[in-house]
Amino acid sequence: MLAPRDGGLYLDGTFGGGGYAGAILAAADCVLVALDRDPAAIQRGAEMATRYSGRLRMVEGKISEILNLLEREGITRLDGAVFDLGVSSYQIDDPARGFSFKQSGPLDMRMGAQKITAAELVNSMPEAELADMLYEFGEEKASRRIAQAIVARRAVQKFATTSDLATVIRGVVRADKSGIDPATRSFQALRIAVNDELGEISAGLAQSAALLAPGGRLVVVSFHSLEDRIVKRFFAERCGRAPGVSRHDPAGLQAASAPQFKLLTKTPVTADENELRANPRARSAKLRAMERLAA
């Protein structure tokens, strides 16, 4: 979907372990700017940058800062951009980062250098705000009961580890037939809150789209409904596919703006059986793409 070409300039907005970056650089004799807010990811990219000397530029920062970060690199136009949203396998597989309930580690969840940790949130948020956060970002139906249990427990002992929090949640929410751990939705909610992931996605999409040259493509892979909803709406708006306003709405009197992009994926692309066998984590991935029209 990205279709890299020789001489093009591309952005990998979520470098992670460098899988996308390596594939892009192998596909065409192009230049790639790789962005990540995680200092560990930038360090991992150093070896690849040496291997692709002059073709790969590593930049540390958030996707909400794309315009400023690329301007510092002297870049004002892109031929394509790709985002692989959410937590990376490197982050979730490292107990010390505190993203997973499968192995005990510090309750951290920071993707970058921000100050607030997950432990600080669960140990300080008022019960009502905590419940709202679990419901909004985790779509957790038992959010009120979980928040109540968290507040009761932290009054006796503060939360410090992932296993500590997961144990309390499992005491409130029973496992169901799906096999999904009862702590999954709450951990997702905390991670999103700590890293302002939804705000980052909205800003990153808008800024990267603004940099695309005619024919440039924006490709986004999302992993849960909250992410995908933002991507789907953004693509619909930019491709002139947003729902029309009510005839009673004064906004309906205004002429509709011409579409800026062409949608390349009428329905999201998902992993086939072969990919799922090789990479089970791709089961919830949805890929959407669009292409900027000529000015």
Name of the CATH superfamily of the largest domain? Vaccinia Virus protein VP39
From the coordinates shown, what is the CATH architecture of the largest domain? Answer: 3-Layer(aba) Sandwich
Continuous helix count = 12
> According to CATH, what is the class of the largest domain?
Alpha Beta
What does this structure look like?
By secondary structure, the chain is α/β, with parallel strands linked by helices. The protein has 2 domains: 9-84 and 197-292, 3-Layer(aba) Sandwich (Rossmann fold), CATH 3.40.50.150; 97-195, Putative methyltransferase TM0872, insert domain (DNA polymerase, domain 1, Orthogonal Bundle). It has helices at 19-27, 39-51, 66-72, 89-92, 118-124, 127-138, 143-154, 162-170, 184-195, 197-211, 225-238, 273-278; strands spanning 9-12, 31-36, 56-60, 78-84, 212-222, 261-263, 286-292. It has a 7-stranded mixed β-sheet with strand order 3-2-1-4-5-7-6, sandwiched between helices. Strand 1, helix 1 (19-27) and strand 2 form a beta-alpha-beta unit. The two termini are 21 Å apart.
